[in-house]
Protein backbone atom coordinates (compact mmCIF):
# COMPACT_ATOMS: atom_id res chain seq x y z
CA UNK A 1 0.00 0.00 0.00
CA UNK A 2 1.37 3.42 -0.95
CA UNK A 3 1.91 5.95 1.83
CA UNK A 4 -0.50 8.82 2.38
CA UNK A 5 1.01 12.11 1.22
CA UNK A 6 1.28 15.03 3.67
CA UNK A 7 1.13 17.96 1.28
CA UNK A 8 2.92 20.99 2.73
CA UNK A 9 2.00 23.21 -0.20
CA UNK A 10 -1.76 22.81 0.33
CA UNK A 11 -1.48 23.15 4.11
CA UNK A 12 0.67 26.27 3.86
CA UNK A 13 -1.91 27.90 1.56
CA UNK A 14 -4.66 27.21 4.11
CA UNK A 15 -2.58 28.70 6.94
CA UNK A 16 -1.63 31.71 4.80
CA UNK A 17 -5.30 32.56 4.31
CA UNK A 18 -5.61 32.94 8.10
CA UNK A 19 -2.35 34.91 8.26
CA UNK A 20 -3.61 37.31 5.57
CA UNK A 21 -6.87 37.81 7.45
CA UNK A 22 -5.09 38.47 10.75
CA UNK A 23 -2.55 40.81 9.09
CA UNK A 24 -5.44 42.79 7.64
CA UNK A 25 -7.08 43.10 11.09
CA UNK A 26 -3.80 44.26 12.68
CA UNK A 27 -3.24 46.77 9.85
CA UNK A 28 -6.72 48.19 10.41
CA UNK A 29 -6.33 48.43 14.19
CA UNK A 30 -2.64 49.45 14.50
CA UNK A 31 -0.42 49.40 11.39
CA UNK A 32 0.84 46.86 8.85
CA UNK A 33 3.02 44.11 10.42
CA UNK A 34 6.59 44.43 9.10
CA UNK A 35 9.48 42.02 8.48
CA UNK A 36 13.01 43.29 7.76
CA UNK A 37 15.26 40.90 5.81
CA UNK A 38 19.03 41.38 5.64
CA UNK A 39 20.94 39.78 2.78
CA UNK A 40 24.75 39.98 2.89
CA UNK A 41 26.54 39.12 -0.36
CA UNK A 42 25.41 37.49 -3.60
CA UNK A 43 24.88 33.81 -2.71
CA UNK A 44 22.50 32.55 -5.47
CA UNK A 45 20.49 30.17 -3.22
CA UNK A 46 20.11 32.88 -0.56
CA UNK A 47 18.86 35.34 -3.17
CA UNK A 48 16.15 32.85 -4.23
CA UNK A 49 15.12 32.22 -0.61
CA UNK A 50 14.96 35.95 0.15
CA UNK A 51 12.93 36.66 -3.00
CA UNK A 52 10.42 33.97 -1.96
CA UNK A 53 10.19 35.38 1.57
CA UNK A 54 9.62 38.95 0.34
CA UNK A 55 6.95 37.82 -2.15
CA UNK A 56 5.21 35.68 0.51
CA UNK A 57 5.06 38.72 2.81
CA UNK A 58 3.44 40.82 0.07
CA UNK A 59 0.91 38.06 -0.71
CA UNK A 60 -0.16 37.92 2.96
CA UNK A 61 -0.39 41.66 3.61
CA UNK A 62 2.84 41.87 5.60
CA UNK A 63 5.21 44.75 4.80
CA UNK A 64 8.77 43.68 3.99
CA UNK A 65 11.97 45.72 4.03
CA UNK A 66 14.90 44.17 2.16
CA UNK A 67 18.32 45.44 3.22
CA UNK A 68 21.16 44.32 0.92
CA UNK A 69 24.78 44.59 2.01
CA UNK A 70 27.85 43.74 -0.10
CA UNK A 71 29.76 40.52 0.68
CA UNK A 72 32.77 42.51 1.96
CA UNK A 73 30.70 44.33 4.61
CA UNK A 74 32.31 44.24 8.03
CA UNK A 75 30.74 42.47 10.98
CA UNK A 76 30.29 45.89 12.62
CA UNK A 77 28.32 47.19 9.62
CA UNK A 78 25.89 44.26 9.85
CA UNK A 79 25.57 44.69 13.63
CA UNK A 80 24.96 48.44 13.24
CA UNK A 81 22.17 47.76 10.74
CA UNK A 82 20.54 45.20 13.08
CA UNK A 83 20.75 47.65 16.00
CA UNK A 84 19.03 50.32 13.89
CA UNK A 85 16.23 47.84 13.03
CA UNK A 86 16.01 46.79 16.70
CA UNK A 87 15.27 50.44 17.56
CA UNK A 88 12.79 50.92 14.69
CA UNK A 89 9.29 50.76 16.20
CA UNK A 90 7.80 50.10 12.74
CA UNK A 91 9.73 46.79 12.37
CA UNK A 92 8.30 43.69 14.07
CA UNK A 93 10.59 40.94 12.82
CA UNK A 94 14.24 40.79 11.72
CA UNK A 95 15.69 37.97 9.65
CA UNK A 96 19.34 37.69 8.61
CA UNK A 97 19.63 35.27 5.70
CA UNK A 98 22.19 32.54 6.39
CA UNK A 99 24.86 31.55 5.51
CA UNK A 100 26.86 34.73 6.03
CA UNK A 101 30.30 35.44 4.50
CA UNK A 102 33.00 33.55 6.45
CA UNK A 103 34.52 36.64 8.11
CA UNK A 104 31.24 37.36 9.94
CA UNK A 105 30.27 35.38 13.06
CA UNK A 106 26.74 34.00 12.57
CA UNK A 107 26.32 33.49 16.32
CA UNK A 108 27.28 37.11 17.09
CA UNK A 109 24.83 38.36 14.46
CA UNK A 110 21.98 36.17 15.78
CA UNK A 111 22.65 37.37 19.36
CA UNK A 112 22.43 41.03 18.21
CA UNK A 113 18.82 40.65 17.06
CA UNK A 114 16.23 41.81 19.61
CA UNK A 115 14.73 38.62 21.13
CA UNK A 116 11.20 39.95 20.51
CA UNK A 117 12.03 40.40 16.79
CA UNK A 118 13.88 37.09 16.35
CA UNK A 119 11.39 35.52 13.90
CA UNK A 120 13.83 32.70 13.03
CA UNK A 121 13.79 31.56 16.67
CA UNK A 122 17.61 31.25 16.75
CA UNK A 123 18.47 33.65 19.59
CA UNK A 124 19.84 31.95 22.73
CA UNK A 125 16.91 33.32 24.74
CA UNK A 126 14.36 31.71 22.40
CA UNK A 127 16.40 28.48 22.24
CA UNK A 128 16.43 28.34 26.06
CA UNK A 129 12.73 29.12 26.33
CA UNK A 130 11.95 26.36 23.82
CA UNK A 131 13.96 23.80 25.79
CA UNK A 132 12.07 24.79 28.98
CA UNK A 133 8.67 24.61 27.26
CA UNK A 134 8.07 28.35 27.71
CA UNK A 135 6.34 30.65 25.17
CA UNK A 136 8.76 31.79 22.47
CA UNK A 137 9.20 32.36 18.74
CA UNK A 138 9.79 28.81 17.48
CA UNK A 139 12.25 27.88 14.71
CA UNK A 140 10.28 27.84 11.46
CA UNK A 141 11.15 24.46 9.92
CA UNK A 142 10.58 22.28 13.02
CA UNK A 143 7.41 24.22 13.85
CA UNK A 144 6.19 23.65 10.29
CA UNK A 145 6.84 19.90 10.65
CA UNK A 146 4.71 19.76 13.81
CA UNK A 147 1.88 21.56 11.99
CA UNK A 148 2.10 18.99 9.17
CA UNK A 149 1.91 16.08 11.62
CA UNK A 150 -1.10 17.70 13.31
CA UNK A 151 -2.81 18.23 9.94
CA UNK A 152 -2.55 14.49 9.27
CA UNK A 153 -4.00 13.74 12.75
CA UNK A 154 -0.85 11.89 13.79
CA UNK A 155 -0.85 11.45 17.57
CA UNK A 156 2.76 11.63 18.75
CA UNK A 157 2.11 10.71 22.37
CA UNK A 158 4.22 7.70 23.38
CA UNK A 159 5.49 7.22 19.81
CA UNK A 160 9.18 6.63 19.12
CA UNK A 161 10.37 9.57 17.01
CA UNK A 162 13.81 9.50 15.41
CA UNK A 163 15.39 12.76 14.24
CA UNK A 164 18.21 12.29 11.72
CA UNK A 165 20.50 15.31 12.08
CA UNK A 166 21.48 17.48 15.06
CA UNK A 167 21.76 20.98 13.60
CA UNK A 168 20.76 24.01 15.68
CA UNK A 169 18.33 25.04 12.94
CA UNK A 170 16.39 21.77 12.55
CA UNK A 171 17.57 18.70 14.47
CA UNK A 172 17.85 19.98 18.05
CA UNK A 173 14.71 22.18 18.09
CA UNK A 174 12.80 19.39 16.27
CA UNK A 175 13.64 17.04 19.14
CA UNK A 176 12.39 19.63 21.67
CA UNK A 177 9.07 20.12 19.86
CA UNK A 178 8.52 16.36 19.59
CA UNK A 179 9.20 16.03 23.33
CA UNK A 180 6.57 18.73 23.93
CA UNK A 181 4.11 16.42 22.16
CA UNK A 182 5.08 13.57 24.53
CA UNK A 183 6.95 11.55 21.91
CA UNK A 184 9.95 9.45 22.95
CA UNK A 185 12.78 11.06 21.00
CA UNK A 186 16.09 9.76 19.67
CA UNK A 187 18.46 12.27 18.07
CA UNK A 188 20.75 10.47 15.61
CA UNK A 189 23.72 11.90 13.71
CA UNK A 190 26.80 11.02 11.63
CA UNK A 191 28.49 9.25 14.57
CA UNK A 192 25.45 7.11 15.50
CA UNK A 193 26.17 3.39 15.32
CA UNK A 194 23.76 0.75 13.98
CA UNK A 195 21.51 3.47 12.56
CA UNK A 196 19.30 1.05 10.62
CA UNK A 197 18.46 -0.78 13.86
CA UNK A 198 17.11 2.52 15.23
CA UNK A 199 15.26 3.61 12.08
CA UNK A 200 13.45 0.25 11.91
CA UNK A 201 12.09 0.81 15.43
CA UNK A 202 10.89 4.36 14.81
CA UNK A 203 7.20 5.23 14.43
CA UNK A 204 8.16 8.67 13.10
CA UNK A 205 11.35 9.59 11.21
CA UNK A 206 12.37 13.20 10.55
CA UNK A 207 15.18 13.21 7.96
CA UNK A 208 17.37 16.33 8.13
CA UNK A 209 20.89 15.17 7.25
CA UNK A 210 21.44 17.03 3.98
CA UNK A 211 22.37 13.86 2.07
CA UNK A 212 20.42 13.04 -1.11
CA UNK A 213 18.18 9.94 -0.88
CA UNK A 214 19.90 8.87 2.37
CA UNK A 215 16.90 7.12 3.96
CA UNK A 216 16.15 3.91 2.04
CA UNK A 217 13.05 1.70 2.11
CA UNK A 218 14.87 -1.08 4.00
CA UNK A 219 15.51 1.41 6.84
CA UNK A 220 11.82 2.17 7.40
CA UNK A 221 9.32 0.22 9.48
CA UNK A 222 6.09 -0.57 7.60
CA UNK A 223 3.50 2.13 8.33
CA UNK A 224 5.99 4.62 9.79
CA UNK A 225 5.59 8.38 9.31
CA UNK A 226 8.46 9.84 7.24
CA UNK A 227 9.06 13.60 7.10
CA UNK A 228 11.72 14.78 4.64
CA UNK A 229 13.36 18.09 5.57
CA UNK A 230 16.23 17.74 3.08
CA UNK A 231 16.61 19.84 -0.06
CA UNK A 232 19.39 18.53 -2.31
CA UNK A 233 20.29 18.12 -5.97
CA UNK A 234 20.80 14.60 -7.30
CA UNK A 235 23.46 13.61 -9.87
CA UNK A 236 21.19 14.90 -12.68
CA UNK A 237 20.73 18.25 -10.93
CA UNK A 238 17.12 17.47 -10.04
CA UNK A 239 15.68 18.58 -6.70
CA UNK A 240 15.38 15.76 -4.17
CA UNK A 241 15.19 15.21 -0.42
CA UNK A 242 17.05 13.10 2.14
CA UNK A 243 14.52 10.29 1.59
CA UNK A 244 14.43 7.83 -1.31
CA UNK A 245 10.83 8.90 -1.91
CA UNK A 246 9.86 6.53 -4.74
CA UNK A 247 10.82 3.42 -2.76
CA UNK A 248 10.06 4.57 0.79
CA UNK A 249 6.49 5.55 -0.13
CA UNK A 250 5.75 1.84 -0.69
CA UNK A 251 6.69 1.06 2.94
CA UNK A 252 5.75 4.17 4.96
CA UNK A 253 2.26 5.01 6.22
CA UNK A 254 2.70 8.78 5.69
CA UNK A 255 5.35 10.67 3.74
CA UNK A 256 6.18 14.22 2.64
CA UNK A 257 7.35 15.04 -0.91
CA UNK A 258 10.28 17.20 -2.05
CA UNK A 259 9.50 19.74 -3.37
CA UNK A 260 6.05 20.65 -1.99
CA UNK A 261 6.53 19.25 1.51
CA UNK A 262 8.31 20.95 4.40
CA UNK A 263 9.73 23.82 2.25
CA UNK A 264 6.53 25.88 1.84
CA UNK A 265 5.73 25.39 5.55
CA UNK A 266 9.04 26.95 6.63
CA UNK A 267 8.22 30.31 5.01
CA UNK A 268 4.63 30.10 6.27
CA UNK A 269 5.87 29.71 9.86
CA UNK A 270 8.15 32.71 9.31
CA UNK A 271 5.07 34.76 8.37
CA UNK A 272 3.23 33.42 11.43
CA UNK A 273 6.16 34.35 13.69
CA UNK A 274 6.16 37.88 12.22
CA UNK A 275 2.47 38.21 13.09
CA UNK A 276 3.07 36.90 16.63
CA UNK A 277 5.95 39.39 17.06
CA UNK A 278 3.70 42.22 15.81
CA UNK A 279 0.83 41.20 18.12
CA UNK A 280 3.23 41.05 21.10
CA UNK A 281 4.56 44.51 20.24
CA UNK A 282 1.08 46.06 19.93
CA UNK A 283 -0.02 44.39 23.18
CA UNK A 284 3.05 45.73 24.98
CA UNK A 285 2.27 49.29 23.82
CA UNK A 286 -1.34 48.98 24.96
CA UNK A 287 -0.23 47.81 28.41
CA UNK A 288 2.25 50.67 28.89
UniProtKB/TrEMBL annotation:
Residues noted as binding NADP(+) in the record, renumbered to the chain: 165-167, 231
Pathway of action: One-carbon metabolism; tetrahydrofolate interconversion
Domain Tetrahydrofolate dehydrogenase/cyclohydrolase catalytic stretches: 6-120
UniProt key word Protease: no
Annotated GO CC locations: cytosol
MF terms (GO), sorted A to Z: methenyltetrahydrofolate cyclohydrolase activity; methylenetetrahydrofolate dehydrogenase (NADP+) activity
EC number: 1.5.1.5, 3.5.4.9
Domain named Tetrahydrofolate dehydrogenase/cyclohydrolase NAD(P)-binding: residues: 139-280
Keyword terms of this UniProt record: Amino-acid biosynthesis, Histidine biosynthesis, Hydrolase, Methionine biosynthesis, Multifunctional enzyme, NADP, One-carbon metabolism, Oxidoreductase, Purine biosynthesis
A Pfam family: THF_DHG_CYH_C
A GO BP annotation: methionine biosynthetic process
Assembly mode: Homodimer.
Protein family (similarity comment): Belongs to the tetrahydrofolate dehydrogenase/cyclohydrolase family.
Protein purpose: Catalyzes the oxidation of 5,10-methylenetetrahydrofolate to 5,10-methenyltetrahydrofolate and then the hydrolysis of 5,10-methenyltetrahydrofolate to 10-formyltetrahydrofolate.
PANTHER family linked: C-1-TETRAHYDROFOLATE SYNTHASE, CYTOPLASMIC, C-1-TETRAHYDROFOLATE SYNTHASE, CYTOPLASMIC-RELATED
Protein name per the record: Bifunctional protein FolD
Record organism: Turicimonas muris
Gene name per UniProt: folD
